[in-house]
Amino acid sequence: MKLVVAIIRPERLTAVLESLYRADVRGLTVSKVQGHGGETEHVETYRGTTVKMDLQQKVRLEIGVSEHFVQPTIDAIVAGARTGDVGDGKIFVLPVERIVRIRTGETDTSAVTPVAAD
Amino acid sequence: MPPDLSAPDTLFVLLSTALVLLMTPALALFYGGLVRAKSILNTMMMSFAAVGVVGLLWALLGYSLAFAPGATAIGGFDFVGMRGITLALREGGTIPHLLFFAYQGTFAIITAALISGAIVERMRFSAYILFLGAWTLVVYSPVAHWVWGGGWMGQLGILDFAGGTVVHITAGTAALVAALMVGPRRDHGRQAFLPHNVPMMLTGAALLWFGWVGFNGGSALAVNGTAVQATVNTILAPMAAMAAWMALEFKRTGHVTAVGAGTALVVGLVAITPACGFVSPLGALAIGAIAAVPCHLVILYRVRTRLDDSLDVMGAHGTGGAVGAILTGVFTSSAWGGPAGLLEGSLAQVGLQTLGVVVAAAYTALMTWAILKGIGAVMPLRVDARDEAAGVDVAEHGEEGYTDGEGAILVLESATAPRAMPAMRPTTSAPVAQSA
Fold this sequence. Notes:
The complex is a heterodimer. By secondary structure, chain A is α+β, with helices and mostly antiparallel strands. Chain A has helices at 13-22, 70-81, 108-111; strands spanning 2-8, 29-35, 42-46, 49-53, 56-65, 89-95.
């Protein structure tokens, strides 16, 4: 079991969700985050105030997957998120000690196996 | 002040000028609410900038081309640079010429701004500004002259009380051509473009309605029965349009939407604009209700095509304007200040109205195409793909509509010794510590 954490461009989110869907990866959490990863910061001006925007808007995906889904998940994220410019983001794969599905009490791999809602 | 000036008429048109001027910022709110958050400033600026660019050009040249004595196709140069526009009464009127000039300027401004709804979120701002200016002089001024400035449409008896043809058919047609030439947003058809602030859009719709009272009522240019008739019709038609639209939506999806109601309101206003001084109040209700149907269908259909007329300028203003112009020929009533219409047994007016719609649309389409071709030869019409993805606000204006300022480092442009910036990260090549 792994937790795949990906930081991507907000405007690539739809494409990433699409390719994850095609890779049969369901169940994920998305949050809006800010960060910096080496891209050129842009300059904004408000009346006399000029600022360098050092933090960029990003989107973080968190996906708990079983072992054999790790590579397809990574591939899907890369396929959807890549533009080729600096600032496309990162993917982190973290070991997971335990997973519990709250509704049923199922644990670990069976907890991250998708079930169809009624 | 000239002795035969009418104080009530002057006051009325003064107030109407303020009302119509308010419509352009109202349109900015309406359009701004409908786009994505990352494009709100660019979208609102496309309307706001029209006040500056179109207003200025109108004062210096556009007004003369529309209203100075000239040929039947275009006005002359008598009023270039506001020459001869004084506090003296306008010929045949009861208000100062200067006031008429300002009142008409507010119409030119909003007409050009309307087009922007078709090309939001991707057009290059500099290209848009050039387009605004050229379009006002090449399309708006001549068409305004045809109808109101002594040109051929007015001479033929084509009816357009407050600008159904001059404003809405031209803007709607130009929007269609501009959307085709600038091309769709890159995510069009793949990603849903949802309105980011519907309350803002509704606020804009409400203010448009408020301003429209000056647009239509004020077009009587005097405090008289026609002004009352036009104003009341301007209140009635959107009511009927909204009711009809809500019924159509409810029948189709089981919901009545706020975005739909706001759109319907504008459709009703557009449709009654050419007719408001010629039809009965009951006729106004009928025009509003009837116009809702084709506009609703065009907007539903448009979404399924590759045409990215993003905010449905063609669907609301083009379609509503054309339907309103033709229905003017149906409902115009000799008891309400118009010539006899179809309901009174005369087909002639419907024919005239249709001729007006077709010629205005054809001329606008051709000229809009030519203007955009010309600008496109000098500069790209669109921002590049990267800027479009990140949002036009930052790329084109260097501002964001909604920013909390986190991560913004103040750039001090002073002559004192450069201050060390807080180093957020190593500048080059050094590996970046990613995990905390």
